[in-house]
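Input for the complex:
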Amino acid sequence: MIENSFNRRDFLKVLGWGSATVALSGCGNTSVEDGKEFVTSYVQTADYIIPSIGTYFNSTCAQCDAGCGIMGRVREGRVLKLEGNPKSSINNGKMCGLGQAGVQAHYNPDRIREPLLRNGDKGEAITWEKALGLINEKVGGVRAENVAFLTGGVSGHVKALLKNYLDALGSGHHYVYEAVAPSVMRAANKKAYGVEMPRLRMDKAKVILSFGADFLGAWISPVHFSQQYARFRKADNGKRGVLVQVESKMTLTGANADRWLVIRPGTEGIFALGLINALAAAGLSVPGDVAAVVKEYTTDRVSKDTGVPTEHIAKLAALLKERSPSLIIAGSAAEGYAHGSQNATAIALLNQVLGNVGKTVEGSSGIPFPQMAPTTGNRQALQILNDNMAQDKVKVLFSYGSNPVFTAPASMKLKENLKKVPFKVAFAHYMDETAVEADLVLPLNSALEDWGTVMPEYIADGAQLNIRQPLMEKLHPGTLGMGDILLALLKQRRPEEYKGYEDFYSYLRNAMVSNKGALGGANADDNTFWEAALSHGMVKLVGSPINISSHVSANGLVVPAPFVEDSTYPLHLIPAVSASLRDGRNANEPWLQESPDPLTTIVWDSWVEMHPKTAAKLGIVEGDIVEVASKSGAIKAQVYVFTGIHPDVISVPLGYGHEAMGRYAKGVGVNAFKILDPVFDKETGELAMHETRVKVSKAGQRVIIVKDEGPAGGNQMGRKIAVRMSSDKVNLSKEV
Amino acid sequence: MSITNLLENWSDFRQQHPSDDRPHREYKWAMSIDLDACTGCNACSVACYAENNLPVVGKEKFAHGHSHHWIRIERYWDNDGREFADQGAQFLPMLCQHCEAAPCETVCPVGATNHTADGLNSQVYNRCVGSRYCNANCPYKARYFNWYDYPTTDNVWPEPMNQQLNPDVTVRGKGVMEKCTFCVQRLTVAKSDARSEGRSVLDGEVQTACQQVCPTGAISFGNLVDPLAKVGKQWMTQQVELNKDKQAKDTAEEAAKLRGYRILEELRTYPSVMYLEQLRESAI
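Predicted:
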């Protein structure tokens, strides 16, 4: 460092370099010269840092629950970009836009930087010692059964520690809640196949028939399925797979289908049973009990009930019979009704009749460590917690990885009930809607500066335990990892057991290394095993395979008749799960807000999708602000008119309408979660997301929608831009 | 080099579009995009933001057409007046086509956009004076103008988000035109590494950010001069030739079995990006 007494600028002046002074100040370098910034010389270099050369470190994506392997490009101690880890069998080196935006969750300017304690309406910064001491005092001051822990889906060692902490408290109240989760499908799969999450082998299927599963967009493990889809479209034998999507509102997957069949909402089960009947009529052998159930579902009746033309039902049945194996998927659209379980069962039955089970629907790999297996969430858990809060049974509430104040329907009155809880602790990255309500907010490390292990819910190819490791130093000294916090809390309760672990890293390393035999490292020494795990970003596990069974019973399967018309609320509301925003937890990442919705190309706002016929009937044009009112509430948004939706349906995307969370999320769009009616799936008790009926009325204003669609809309105006041809014209096997 | 020398031998120094007697020598970067594999998911676009320091402009500026995405997904419907879009959408990733005879290059008053020896259409930011003639002349609307000084604009890169900026790529200033570079920073590193080892860049050694992220592998990128490069093989299989404005596909007998085409070829811009037509099953 040049000391201030001998200023470099003066030095240059002495040399007569007058112009250089001007140039230097023009470059904004003055602060360096004045000694306000320190410049570190690379003569004293840090390990693994070569100036201007990026190094890649493997870790695990935290933007959704799919658990893709990522590599972060680190240069001069900063993580700059994320790429897919080619060694991960989930994503094989690929990523999605949501995953790419992970760096914006890390560098986000709105992250909480120190523990905040409520003081009236404000949060007051306190030390971690004080915060953890306060928690100890509060949980010590109430009965164990009055402590509750609400989380999103958790897995790995954090889950194990969380369980240990709850055990140490003597409380078993761990509520796992995910606002957007295929819970009904999981339950139906368990019943039909004995496996909650069977492997879907799209690469082996010749036809995929999906009932509203947006597997290319936001469903379960989209990057994995997108790769499978690419192999399905360009099979080695040159025969291109055929995708048919049946749904009431077009998803990204629907937009890629060879045939998009629009269906009356809720009649997916009827359609599946009708297909079985049509297949039986075409000569497919169908078990007697199934034949008895489906015989009433004639093509004419099914066409009348579902609104799908008879010719398409016949074509689809012929295709499914001719090209085998196929793959039938029950998605969130089919399961989002009060009879969602019946729909899913009928669709599973179709899979079974077609003989796909065991061929394209495969068993899964077991997880050797059940204590680390992902706990999956459902809304029922939140309901129980909510009821307990309403009855003053919850005195201390912890919340981690979910934002129920934002995602719970208004009819649950969750925010009001939350106020009854005397002490609420939120572990959070942002001041989101739930953190705003908390008494103590504890700031978490970002996923790019934290330690952890992640077990994915959908197992792509043999189980793997994903490693999450810091890609760089913590940005803010005041944040902590969830593992570290839990360890500190456990030390308060069981000091003897945990005193050997200085931090979560040492706990994690010890837990992994001491189990290296089971983790496939029996012959390696501790360091080699651990270094290899970190270097690969994962440990491949050998789990005993779970075989799939096929025993969908047609007995007792009653799919209800289509909805009757409701004159007060004539339209069905489909809350759309978008690939970028999902349940809204990533809404404060500007890349996602500015990434156009693939179908409407709208950015930075909510919208109401509507069919031109419906719009004409209501006298609405694009850009009209309308009020969408259900029995449970009302929202206002701009209308987008297009032909990818059933005329009886309108759709509003989820994830928008934050009232807190940060500068990029707050005030953008409206929150469609709020107006969902409290209707539940009869078998599983899940919120039936697609059951809400609404009425739409003009609110008087009109705006110009901000979107990325050219002035001609979706029209090529006769120019040859995006061209399409018939698949029988080309032989894909001859292509490179 | 003296001025006299430069003036006398100007044609040796001037980079022009390769033609029959002056072919591309070592490298000719090109791309092919399979529209049957592209699902329109937008991952490429977000990856491009991350790699190339693109500013997020916000709703108001987006509404005024000031968006910056060097690769965008165009979405078209082919409804023929039908009630429903029952054959889905047509998605097309649109980026700078790196035309061999780029309409943007000829109109630049200061020569800020020009052709490189390895076939890129390059934009020299510190030469650009912001006349926007290139933008007006680009038939693909793939050029983006910096109406604002984004580094100092609120909430584009607030602390500490500016720490994410890629140091290999400049942050463009106000009044400068910008566009897709085929991730030239990655190409430069790969070329330099190869040169120091006394070889050419191998196929697959360098990927563009959009190609690397693409979940379906719809994007291929590589050196058209390299006989082993996948992209070259694809161009050859599809009988698309760089220096022609009418391809085999445009003749009646070949039209049926070839998928490869370039956009607006009749304008004779000779793009370096080939698209493969989307397919739809006729039996359904």
